Amino acid sequence: VDMGAKLLCLFLASALLAYYIYTPIPEDLEEPWKVMFITAAFRAMGHLAEVADRLGLMHYMETLMLITVAEYVAPTSDENVTVMDTEFSDVAVRLYLPRKASDGLRRAVVYFHGGGWSLGHAGMKPYDHLARWTSNRLNAVVVSVNYRLAPKYHFPVQFEDVYSVTKFFLQSSILSQYGVDPDRVCVAGDSAGGNLAAAVAQQLLKDPDVKTKLKVQALLYPALQTLDLNLPSYRENENKPILPRLLMVKFWSEYFTSDSSLREAMASNRHVPVESSHLFQFVNWSNLLPEELKKDYVYTSPTYGSSELAEKYPGFLDPRAAPLLASDAQLRGLPLTYVLTCEHDVLRDDGVMYAGRLQAAGVPVTHDHAKDAFHGVMMFVLGPANLAVGYRLLNRYVEWLNENL
């Protein structure tokens, strides 16, 4: 009997492991086994976070934050770049200063990391690698911002942190201190950081105190709208690697509040009050998406939610949180823009609609759409993951900056 019990346990353990690791992976993704293991690791972490949260041991996001902690590296200079942690306008930043001689003023990139406004750090290995790579390839100053995170801080704190850093850096005295050309500054970010970069670029246009104009903005698979969480990309990629729909809903709602009523309303896509119905024109995918991304999905009119939620948490209707809600007139003066979208990503349609709206408003846009990639893919270029597609997109982004900044 003992042998039989052991065999049964082994069988169950193997079955559980196989269930965990085996995820149907889209056919056009390269290195499917690597993607499967990455997905399994993230899913395990998500389940652990769920359990810890339900048992009242740790907030969901605090458990996920352990990934950030595990990936942290101290600021370490090398032969190409001097790296230091400091503060700009009372906000923590990691600064990358190239050591190569420069025959004139340098370019600069102000970078905002991703992580759903709740996770991430400029000192995580992938972000540290990205900043060094950018600084070294462009001979540019990189300011990577450690804005404060949810659940401890909610909107607009994250936005205000990145905005005050950018505004501080754009002062002519600070630019000259770091030898930066005021005509060659960029804001960039991925995912939630792409959201913050887009919001910062919009806000700078309205700010009479800022004399220096951005040269470019670069948005890597950005989250740009809170209104419709049932876009074709949300439906099609509901359970795709790294960022399933319900996790994105959690990130969005946590950005504004830890009150679960907003999360529940967002999960059923019934959070926008009827008074805000005029905003849906800015995210109406039936008008804004190209035919090939509409697939066989049918656009249905929004189901409106309670006014009470929007009164309590007005942030989710604010263009500083949802840059796609800016009017066409507000998009007109934006700088040259790079948008990267990934096919297998709930946020795909956000980026596609923004690129289209910017083009219609006369803003020059380069839109790269990676058909063989999923959300956050540029984070997996180091260590055992070492995804080839991540490297390709990372190189493409840095090349674009090199040509346009």
UniProtKB/TrEMBL annotation:
The keyword Nucleotidyltransferase does not apply. It holds the Pfam family Abhydrolase_3. The active site is at 191, 345, 375. GO terms for cellular component: membrane. The keyword Acyltransferase does not apply. GO terms for molecular function: carboxylic ester hydrolase activity. SUPFAM superfamilies: alpha/beta-Hydrolases. Keywords: Disulfide bond, Hydrolase. InterPro entries: AB_hydrolase_3, AB_hydrolase_fold, Arylacetamide_deacetylase, GDXG_lipolytic_enzyme, Lipase_GDXG_put_SER_AS. Residues 109-268, 315-378 form the Alpha/beta hydrolase fold-3 domain. Belongs to the 'GDXG' lipolytic enzyme family. This is AAAD deacetylase. It comes from Haliaeetus albicilla (White-tailed sea-eagle).
